[in-house]
Amino acid sequence: MLNQYSRTQLIFGAEGMERLRLSRVAVFGLGGVGGFTAEALARSGVGALDLIDDDRVCLTNINRQIYATRKTVGQYKVRVAEERIREIDPDICVRTYQTFYGPETRGTFDFSGYDYVVDAIDTVTGKLMLVEQAQEAGTPIISCMGAGNKTDPTAFEVADIYETSVCPLARVMRRELRRRGIRALKVVYSREVPIPPEEDLSISCKAHCICPPGTVRKCTQRRQVPGSNAFVPSVAGLILAGEVIKDLTGFGGRK
User: Fold this and answer.
1) Does the pLDDT at position 199 exceed 50?
2) Alpha carbon distance 8, 11 (integer Å)
């Protein structure tokens, strides 16, 4: 019967679509990368999504984040994402966690209940914990490396973390994962050398913070606010989603 996933089924087949329907995927981080990942997973027929992010949509997110519009500024990203996904397919089971993933909250999540985990957060500590928790549960995970301060969306590659180069975040992750005895991690990373962002205080979040009252993690706390655009983080997010879909359906292993 014709349905909204018919075109996808022409590629992955009925069995592949059933695997997606029965899968639960957790997306940690709904920013410029993770938002596009969640969107693509929903449009591909994944039956259950857990969305984790504690942030609200900011005016400065509109240049790159799929859930950011003038209408959604100030709203929590998980709520906006949930509403949009329900408009895409009301049958998708969506669980949202309006929380920051860290040492205090990691116990909230049972990774054994996930078929796949997507790491789209931007803190090294959080990324390392996600990898460790996924490994302990035996759950597949894919992690995104740095997407800020870049302009070449064609420079992204899918590789094991120990095969990466150029990316400063990947370098730190390689070192820390090696210390923890973790021998493999599937990642999306860019071989583009990051561009140093201009220091323009007239348009800087550091000088003109517009975060709502009560915001815990502000850009003003960063050493440097990274530059970004609409066409680099989105590509990274779509590549993440594509790898998840191919792995869940078994399509990635075909010759």
Assistant:
1) yes
2) 6
